[in-house]
Design brief:
Order of helices and strands of chain A: HEEHEEEEHE
Order of helices and strands of chain B: EEEHHHHHEEHHHHHHEEEHHEEH
Number of helices of chain A: 3
Number of strands of chain B: 10
Strand order of the largest sheet of chain B: 1-2-3
Helix content of chain A: 10-25%
CATH superfamily of the largest domain in chain B: Cytochrome-c3 Hydrogenase, chain B
Oligomer: heterodimer
CATH class of one domain in chain A: Alpha Beta
Radius of gyration of chain A: 19 Å
Largest sheet of chain A: 5 strands, mixed
Largest interface: A-B, 37 and 33 residues
Distance between the termini of chain A: 72 Å
Largest sheet of chain B: 3 strands, antiparallel
CATH topology of one domain in chain A: Beta Polymerase, domain 2
Number of domains of chain B: 2
Distance between the termini of chain B: 60 Å
Number of helices of chain B: 14
CATH topology of the largest domain in chain B: Cytochrome-c3 Hydrogenase, chain B
Number of strands of chain A: 7
Radius of gyration of chain B: 22 Å
CATH architecture of the largest domain in chain B: Orthogonal Bundle
Chain lengths: ~160, ~400
């Protein structure tokens, strides 16, 4: 599939749901969908265009919104589905595991690192952060800074 | 009756800290659960605090075996952001090191597979030949593990005619020995009986669970970034994507040995068609604002770096996806309905990252307390001398 094929097919398959589609470099296509259409768009992409290989999911902190990118691989390049979720306490994102079962680890990583709540995720446990990690600390948010906890010497300092 | 047994985070069968929880019924594994994070270093956050150049050395340290893969993946993404094109000779040298790294990683894995199957002779043979590749890498870059040959805009060292001839000569030895391993790996009855039918992963499951690299290719999914989305010089070099259709550990051995031959062909092609000229161009200090997706076929599968730049001298965001993470859902599937005794073999078959030990150059003479720096040739001479004077039965003397 050439880049132009992907652009045309995505336009016809997604229709109204497609907010923006660009092709900034050869073999790289970026398309944007709304958060409410995400799962439906993934189903269309998988069943009608044959995108089954999810490389990873990236989250980017853009100030007042989180940008979530779903990177797909295919024979001939890479397609990136972008969606934006507003940053608020308990930001919600629908899970795409019903469409692509291999996405579960990346969604768990998003929950750990950005504090995005993924709805309907088959396995909501922590993935990379330790079990005793304090609640409400999400390391990849831009406003998070690491503060080393004060060293406590058993028995006190003399 | 079902039991849950924990394996790891520290366990003799595993080479890196990971926790596997197996639900077993008798000897048969019914379910497996993987818990990660024992080795999480917060590297993506750290990358946002370092400059473009500093991050080359940071990404190189993500993995101790495929160190060149992560650095190359990062560097070729940043070069796109900076709008610079490395000279042809620089690219050839960069991917020459990449293919040599693939050879050493596959030879290392073959040894580990032999070791986990209880075939330690195979392990010692393959690791002996891996030394040839490690020496070549040291000749090219000066280092055995973290080659540090990449820089923004090309590579840091050039290759001279003598080195080129030396590597071409060594390739013949490697080819001969690999043919022998192919014969053993695919035909030796005891070895094949141990690995055939173990760790089944059907083609459908491999596609659904987004498996990558030799794990996917052994399940007959011809997925290789070098062919699917050619980067660097791979659109002008001849190679084939190797697959197997047995969907088990035997298939993973066959795929990796076949890939070794492809690597030798690629290395020979690159050395024989090495263009002349400069090896690098000067890179600016800042990158243009933008985003780039960089993909790279590491020995274990696809590496992906997603880099966002805001126009500063540091990245806004660096997302790293290493191939081992992508293969975990597939590993859980492989473990199901297998035996407890197969766990190390199946787990080793996806080639999870293992740290390599560095070799020391600063030596202390224990008897005199003298510190000295030894050259590699001296070290070799010492080893030879030691071996020749090795006590034989009946002539042995207490050395001190």
């Amino acid at each position: 599939m050439t880049d132009q094929d992907i652009m045309d097919k995505a336009k016809s398959a997604l229709g109204e749901r497609l907010l923006e589609i660009t092709n900034p470099a050869p073999h790289r296509t970026f398309l944007t969908v709304g958060i409410q259409d995400l799962v439906a768009a993934m189903e269309k992409l998988k069943n009608e265009l044959g995108f089954r290989y999810l490389v990873t999911i990236s989250g980017v902190d853009k100030g007042d919104v989180f940008e979530i990118l779903y990177h797909f691989g295919y024979e001939g390049g890479n397609l990136n589905v972008r969606t934006r979720v507003p940053k608020s306490p308990g930001t919600h994102l629908p899970s795409i595991c019903s469409v692509i079962p291999g996405a579960v680890l990346y969604e768990r990583e998003l929950q750990d690192m950005f504090g995005i709540v993924v709805d309907n995720i088959p396995d909501p446990r922590r993935l990379v952060l330790p079990d005793d990690w304090p609640e409400g600390n999400f390391p990849l948010r831009k406003d998070w800074k690491f503060e080393r906890p004060p060293e406590v010497i058993p028995g006190g300092k003399k | 009756m079902k039991f849950e047994i924990p394996i790891g985070p520290q366990h003799p069968a595993l080479k890196e800290p990971i926790s596997l929880r197996m639900t077993v019924e008798g000897e048969v594994i019914r379910d497996a659960d993987i818990r990660l994070g024992y080795n999480h270093r917060g590297l993506e956050k750290l990358a946002e605090e370092k400059t473009w150049i500093q991050n080359i050395y940071l990404t190189e340290r993500i993995c101790g075996i495929c160190s060149h893969s992560h650095a190359t993946c990062y560097v070729q993404g940043v070069e796109k952001l900076m709008d610079i094109v490395p000279p042809k000779r620089g690219l050839y040298l960069r991917f020459l090191v990449a293919e040599l790294e693939r050879v050493h990683s596959h030879l290392l894995w073959l040894g580990v597979a032999g070791h986990e199957a209880g075939f330690d002779t195979f392990f010692m043979y393959t690791w002996r030949d891996r030394e040839i590749v490690m020496d070549i890498l040291e000749i090219i870059s000066g280092n055995r593990v973290h080659y540090a040959i990449n820089t923004l805009g090309g590579v840091r060292r050039d290759l001279d005619e003598g080195q080129r001839q030396h590597i071409l000569g060594q390739l013949d030895t490697l080819r001969q020995r690999t043919e022998y391993y192919f014969k053993i790996g695919a035909n030796e009855p005891t070895f094949v009986a141990r690995i055939a039918g173990v760790g089944k992963l059907s083609k459908e499951m491999a596609i659904d669970l987004c498996a990558v690299g030799p794990t996917a290719r052994a399940s007959d999914v011809p997925r290789d970034v070098r062919r699917d989305d050619p980067y660097g010089i791979y659109d002008e070099t001849p190679f084939e994507v190797c697959t197997a259709d047995t969907c088990d550990v035997l298939g993973r051995v066959v795929v990796r040995v076949k890939e070794l031959f492809q690597c030798y062909n690629l290395i020979e092609f690159m050395l024989k068609n090495l263009p002349s000229g400069e090896v690098k161009v000067k890179a600016p200090r800042r990158a243009k604002p933008g985003e780039v997706v960089s993909r790279y076929e590491a020995p274990r599968g696809e590496n992906m770096h997603y880099i966002v730049s805001s126009g500063a001298d540091k990245p806004e965001r660096l997302k790293v996806r290493a191939p081992t993470l992508a293969n975990y859902p597939a590993t859980v599937e492989m473990l199901k309905n297998g035996f407890i005794a197969d766990i190390p073999l199946i787990f080793a078959a996806i080639d999870p990252c293992i740290c390599c030990a560095e070799r020391t150059v600063e030596t202390v003479d224990l008897r005199t307390g003298e510190e000295s720096t030894l050259r590699f040739s001296q070290l070799r001479a010492l080893a030879k001398e030691r071996f020749e004077k090795n006590p034989r039965k009946g002539t042995g003397l207490w050395p001190f």
